[in-house]
Amino acid sequence: MLAAAGDLLLREGMAAFTIEKVATLAGASRMTIYKWWPSKGALAFDGYRATVEPTLAFPDTGDLATDLRTQLHAFVRLLTETPAGRVMAELIGQAQTDPELRASLLEHYTVPRRERAAEVMRRAQERGQMRADADPQVVVDQLWGACYHRLLTPDHPLTVDFADALVDNVLRGVAA
Amino acid sequence: MLAAAGDLLLREGMAAFTIEKVATLAGASRMTIYKWWPSKGALAFDGYRATVEPTLAFPDTGDLATDLRTQLHAFVRLLTETPAGRVMAELIGQAQTDPELRASLLEHYTVPRRERAAEVMRRAQERGQMRADADPQVVVDQLWGACYHRLLTPDHPLTVDFADALVDNVLRGVAA
Known about the structure:
2 copies of one chain form a homodimer. Helices cover 72% and strands 0% of the residues of chain A. Chain A is an all-alpha fold. The first copy, chain A, has 2 domains: 1-51, Arc Repressor Mutant, subunit A (Orthogonal Bundle), CATH 1.10.10; 55-176, Tetracycline Repressor, domain 2. Chains A and B meet through helix 6, helix 7, helix 8 and helix 9 of A and helix 6, helix 7, helix 8 and helix 9 of B. Chains A, B: InterPro entries: Homeodomain-like_sf, HTH-type_TetR-like_transc_reg, HTH_TetR, Tet_transcr_reg_TetR-rel_C_sf, TetR_C. Chains A, B: Keywords: DNA-binding, Transcription, Transcription regulation. Chains A, B: It comes from Oerskovia merdavium. Chains A, B: Residues 1-55 form the HTH tetR-type domain.
């Protein structure tokens, strides 16, 4: 069910997403779906998470710069080359006036994803690849947060080159 | 009119904002207001810009780190200590499904503000305070974009200490 919901969402976007279509794709009844998900939005968001999770895994090869670039490239491609970007933008947008959606988005998506990114950075700190006094949670906002900024106020392009520049700036600094 | 609109918005937020109240505050008729602004949203956004502009000026004292900190502190305080934060969050949120609002927000707000921030950084590059090969537009996303990220997905606090950590990371880098 989740796979069917996620596939449909990433292929056709939120506008074309219906419980009926998911039911057909999954060979289930609408009744069954409503038993588990209270609304179309809840099913879409759950399907989204389940489907993008493998794409957005945080690698930990032992080299922080490479790992950040790998993850950010996958993240940027997901947001720009599939309907996932529009879906996330609309979810974050709606969350500004929908406290329940906001709570769910934070609890089930942004908080756990932040935590995983921070963990990769903490291991890099233990390996001596990152300053011990730099806060991984701040770096999260300067990498993924910067990408969301270009997604939500799209006056400059969100590209893999941009992702590489983000990693460069944050790792090396921009001071002359 | 703009001053009255901006004052009302920053004092009471978007929910309490009406054309009637602005008319009373400005001693003007509703007809006059409708002649110049097609909607409540348009008037609110124009009033917002006019009112926050002086607060959000970009200083250029000759020291990049100080100037960035000064501007970001004012920006963070505006977003967290006045209803401006909620107003901006709701405007960006609505812009995700309202192409006209998105175009207006980009043209009248984010693009010119980006440009002014980038100009301060280009002058710092000329003074040799910032690497010549660092893209000021990328730094914009890593400072102001990072703040918007905490505003829009509020799972970590948006504070002046956070702003200082952003400037530190981006200027010095986080590599050990």
